[in-house]
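Comment thread on ticket #2218

A.B. wrote:
> Attaching the input chain for the structure job we discussed in standup.
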Amino acid sequence: MTKLAKLTEQMLQAAKAAGAESADAIATEGRSLSIDVREGALEHAERAEGVEIGLRALIGQRQACVAASDASASTITEIADRAVAMARIAPEDPHIGLAQPDQLATSWDLDALDLVDDSPEPMPAHLQDAATRAEATALGVKGISKVESAAASFSRTEMHLAATNGFSGGYARSSHGVYCVAITGDGTEMERDYAGEGRIYAADLPTPEDIGALAADRTLARKGAKKPPTGAYPVVYDERISSGLIGHLLAAANGSMIARGSSWLRDKNGEQVLPKGLDLTEDPHRARVSGSKPFDAEGLPTRARKIVEDGVLQGWTLDLATARQLGLSSTASAGRGPSAPPSPGLTNVALTQGTLSRDALLAEMGTGLLVTSLIGSSINPTTGDYSRGASGFWVENGQIAYPVNECTIAGNLHQMLSGITPANDARTYLSRIVPSLLVEGLTIAGE
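C.D. wrote:
> Ran it. Output below, let me know if you need it in another format.
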């Protein structure tokens, strides 16, 4: 039995001894290292490691969660006593409860998911070298005045979940990253952009030089940005940020939103929400992808499913509690941390790609806005009314004409998503595979 498995078992025993009728426990252990450089010298180094434990105690239809960062026997006894005491006075919730034993995952293949890079942990000097190389490459591009940030990072986290219904399981994942933000110009003429990559395996990362060069190229392309014209125009969401648009649909299909009746999709199950021919699929079992996991936070086996098929919404993202509230079955989508009960969430998502490149999509758009960055957010979750600050490039006759900033784009999510046209440029190694998207008829507020 691993260290974390022993901790969860000790928490369950303590909860039962304190008077819990049922309980689940989670233990996590992680270590991380990040290095930031500026002007070729170390600016900031941070290393963190530790264990966190969390216990959920249930008494009838009442529950309470308590977490701690100390895994001593006395602390485990204390959090069990506290969780049970809190559960006794918590409000009743008719929908809570552990999974039935026949619902639980009983086997899984962690080797197939390939979530851990077993190579030696990188030394601080190695990360500093990677960040320095990214910074030096960006600074070496003519027109770049400074690098605001260049960083490299590593982390490895392990978790174990156990419950009094008999479930016990855990897994680990690793992460490596390099990031660079470059600046051109000064004062009010200053523009910036970035490039960054993260992978489970360090060997899968682009070189720091590639990342620094991309940050510089993106930044220089923004030089001389100005406001676009005001009016109703088509908009292309660049692949860098298009997953955020699809994310609004995913959030609206979350069981918590549906159960509260506060989602603009609440009456759209079984209806057209994307154009015909488009699927939106969740797959928790993709190898070497950060969102993958063998089971959810309630011990249910994860599985691939279609959230949208041929443009038609197939259902909601559910954990056990929201499923019971809606009279449905869980989609094995529970997620949680040590200090909170489970709630619905997503793993890896992919939208059907189109046949056109991004440039071909711009040519099809003709005149409009290519958005590469979004700031702020004003989204009405009940109506789907949408407004966000944006920057990117103005497109005329299908060609990029000039960079733009300080504008706002607005529309309604249901109308926007029902008419999207996808490009074919999605990066298939990401957890969310979403290509550039053409959206018709948005209102742009610029000059």
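A.B. wrote:
> Thanks. Noting for the ticket: The CA atoms of residues 99 and 298 lie 7 Å apart.
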